Amino acid sequence: MLKAIQLYLCLFFVFALGIFYELSIEPGCFFDCKPSSKKFLTLKEVMTQGEKIIFLETSDRLEPPPLVLCSVESAARIYLDRPVVFFIKGLDNNTLMDVKSYCPALSALSAMKNVFIFPLKMDILFQDTPLLPWYLQINATKEKYWIYISSDASRLAMVWKYGGIYMDTDVISIRPIPAANFLAAQSSQFSSNGIFGFQPHHWFLWGCMNDFVENYNGNFWGNQGPYLMTRMLKGLCNLTDFKNLEDQRCHNISFLHPHRFYPIPYSKWKKYYEVWDSIPDFNDSYALHLWNFMNHERKNMTTGSNTLVEHLYKTYCPTTYWSLIQAAEGSKEMSLNQTS
Ligand SMILES: *[C@@H]1O[C@H](CO)[C@@H](O)[C@H](O)[C@H]1NC(C)=O
Ligand SMILES: *[C@@H]1O[C@H](CO)[C@@H](O)[C@H](O)[C@H]1NC(C)=O
Ligand SMILES: *[C@@H]1O[C@H](CO)[C@@H](O)[C@H](O)[C@H]1NC(C)=O
Ligand SMILES: *[C@@H]1O[C@H](CO)[C@@H](O)[C@H](O)[C@H]1NC(C)=O
Ligand SMILES: *[C@@H]1O[C@H](CO)[C@@H](O)[C@H](O)[C@H]1NC(C)=O
Ligand SMILES: *[C@@H]1O[C@H](CO)[C@@H](O)[C@H](O)[C@H]1NC(C)=O
Hints:
By secondary structure, the chain is of the alpha/beta class. The chain contains 12 helices and 10 strands. The protein has helices at residues 2-24, 43-47, 66-78, 96-102, 104-110, 122-125, 131-137, 146-162, 203-214, 226-236, 308-316, 318-339, and strands spanning 53-57, 84-88, 115-119, 164-167, 171-173, 182-187, 190-198, 248-250, 253-256, 287-289. The strands form 2 sheets. Strands 3-2-1-4-7-6-9-8 form an 8-stranded mixed sheet, sandwiched between helices. Strands 5-10 form a two-stranded antiparallel sheet. Helix 1 packs parallel to helix 5 and helix 11 packs across helix 12. The structure holds 2-acetamido-2-deoxy-beta-D-glucopyranose (6 copies). The site of one 2-acetamido-2-deoxy-beta-D-glucopyranose (NAG) has 3 residues, from loops. One 2-acetamido-2-deoxy-beta-D-glucopyranose is lined by residues 139, 141-142.
């Protein structure tokens, strides 16, 4: 029964999602105006095309949950003229084609014209960065936060090498970020590393990678993540508390107001899964961070719940939303068929 539902979902995603996305997105001209040649683009060709949006999966998971799909889809819709690149550690180049045939969600994502999926190869990524010696001597099996730490390292190296914007896979994009070199304040005088953007080879990120290695402490969660960003920024500028909705500037780096990405602070993360009297307009935000690491209860977007998160899916990742509706109806139908 469960197998049957899974099969139904797989087939459904493969056949329907790509088509729906093609129909729903405005016809546009991406990069070379030959979207059919997209699958032949190499990593280097993609990464040298304009400003990228970069997502990473550093666990071995190959089947991204709906929130990840929503996050990537929302970015693909907001940044129609930019490559949206999703690096997945569990993929290697040899299995990419096989994986697409049994990982429907990945097929659905790669059906989007400006979405590119590549394997994440840290040994290659860290070459020519201060992170390589650290990476070569660390024993990953002994690190209790390895998935986070390897993600913290990879995002610094990616944005340093290629430039663009890194986003966590629980960030829903709602409008383009106007800054090129920026960090996102999570609260007053504290930077997150869940979203940031820089031009290629920016000195700030080089400094971050040096600090990563010099002050490495794998036992303290976030030491190489938000605390590193905050330490580096405080070393450069005297941060002040935010006034009204104004962003700050430190050299040529914008330190964006907490409202831009965190209008709902992490202590209130459950608000995303609640029904609101009126849906906030989030006019002062560029993207919304859903704080998935707080979500130990595994709350999710339930169709028909009228929660804030359902409104966000409907508005910013309608293809993902529509596929969940169809999947729910499909499994309902199947259980009816089984009982009758
Ligand atoms: C795939 O990766 C292996 C090593 O991981 C490399 O030797 C090979 O050239 C790659 N193949 C392609 C087509 O990129
Ligand atoms: C890494 O640590 C594990 C567990 O302590 C150990 O079994 C393994 O031999 C270590 N690997 C290396 C290369 O030191
Ligand atoms: C920060 O402020 C302190 C004292 O107010 C001052 O000594 C220091 O030079 C300032 N640092 C920067 C980077 O402006
Ligand atoms: C920011 O500053 C660095 C060095 O001070 C410089 O290399 C870089 O081009 C600047 N970027 C912008 C957008 O001004
Ligand atoms: C938010 O933006 C929308 C569209 O730009 C506008 O209609 C609405 O009035 C704005 N809301 C507020 C509170 O400014
Ligand atoms: C989503 O949450 C609902 C209600 O908590 C639960 O019944 C359902 O199994 C969850 N779905 C997934 C895919 O985890």
